[in-house]
Amino acid sequence: MKQFKRILVFELGNYLKNKVFVGVTVFLAVVIAAVMFFPRIKAAVSSNEPRQSADKPIMLVAAENMSDADMQNAFASVFGEYEVKYTDEGIDSIKNQITGGAAECAFVLHGNGAYTYYVNNLSMYDTNTETAEALLSGIRQVVEMTRAGLTAEDAQSILSIRVGGETVNLGKDQMQNFFYTYIMIFALYMVILLYGQMVATNVATEKSSRAMELLITSARPASMMFGKVIASCIAGLTQLAVVFGSALVFYNLNSKYWGDNPIIRSIFDMPTDLFAYMLLFFVLGFLIYAFMFGAVGSTASKLEDINTSVMPITLLFIGGFLVVMLSMTSGNVDTALMKVCSYIPFTSPMAMFTRLAMSTVKWYETAVSVAILICSVVVIGIAAAKIYRVGVLMYGTTPRIGNVIKAVFGSKK
């Protein structure tokens, strides 16, 4: 235990003293602060500027069979973000105003209920035509009802009837939970690939410098392996805690400026039980991959061989990541493939957490998945320590899997 503590403290100190580690952490916290304070800064800048009606973009409306006031009022009621102006100028003049920047867009209405929409640069988010069609359909319906004998008031009364409903969600709200599930999966993806690679690189560096030959005689392989992996896990969690903790603090300081933004609000309204599951699967998922990275790193003969050696592990993790992301984006996280992945230790940290966040999972399914994952972490950790002991003393060409297995079982005899 003393050896483990010494190695843990030593490795953790190396992370905390690393200028790159500290710099990246501070940089991410600053970026988060800038994002969270942006609405407050924008509001402060906007309050110092005189507000004029010209701040709103101008929308021109030209019609054949409606009066100036009727058309302006109708369009102004549904296009509140525009300053609506009625015009009786010709098409060429309207086009020149739009291309010259005097107006942003224009609706030219025809007698048969059709229209022509003019805009200089059509945005992919432009929904003006849908809004105008709904408005013009209502006006046309009133006209037809009036012709059929109804008064304009009766027609408006009929069209104003609205059917309301209530949604009772008996399970999980996928849209509400999507964003923080997405963030957790990406955080796990980045931390595993980054810190797992660092564990493998550190082991290979010690081996190539021959320092491992001295370390292996003064400390047990299990203590060295577990010390390195757990130190990297603590360093990764510390970095994430600083980044997301600062995001939470900065959000609370600026929450009123964000208003009712559903995306931001859902990210910071994660339920406590789901947050606990996130930490559990995050730690176990990191440990299982970090042990594999460390074991593989110990078998690399040269530092340049690390990328090739860890490629199978990286592809295994990316494969599970893609399965989970495709299921999330499709909206169906309870496919047969996702259920199978929920019990495979290499994919369950992502798959089971996603199902817990975006679907309804029986308690015993979660218990079985966690139990399998914990047992797998222990087994892979012990196996990684044995491979580590043999691998760090193997030099020359990169050892094959069969040779490593023989050496591990041979060392027991």
Overview of this protein structure:
The protein has 413 residues and is mainly alpha-helical. Helix content is 70%, strand content 5%. The protein contains 18 helices and four strands. It has helices at 2-17, 19-47, 68-78, 91-100, 128-147, 152-159, 174-208, 211-218, 221-253, 255-258, 262-267, 272-299, 306-309, 311-330, 336-341, 348-358, 363-391, 401-412, and strands at 58-62, 83-86, 105-109, 115-119. Strand 3 (105-109) and strand 4 (115-119) form a beta hairpin. Helix 1 packs across helix 9 (221-253), helix 9 (221-253) packs across helix 17 and helix 12 (272-299) packs parallel to helix 17. The chain is elongated and about 95 Å long. It starts with a helix and ends with a helix. The model is unreliable at 50-54 (pLDDT under 50).
Topology:
Blueprint lengths: L1 H16 L1 H29 L10 E5 L5 H11 L4 E4 L4 H10 L4 E5 L5 E5 L8 H20 L4 H8 L14 H35 L2 H8 L2 H33 L1 H4 L3 H6 L4 H28 L6 H4 L1 H20 L5 H6 L6 H11 L4 H29 L9 H12 L1
Parallel strand pairs: 1-2, 1-3
Antiparallel strand pairs: 3-4
Helix pairs in contact: 1-9, 2-9, 5-6, 7-9, 7-12, 7-14, 7-16, 9-12, 9-17, 12-16, 12-17, 14-16, 16-17, 17-18
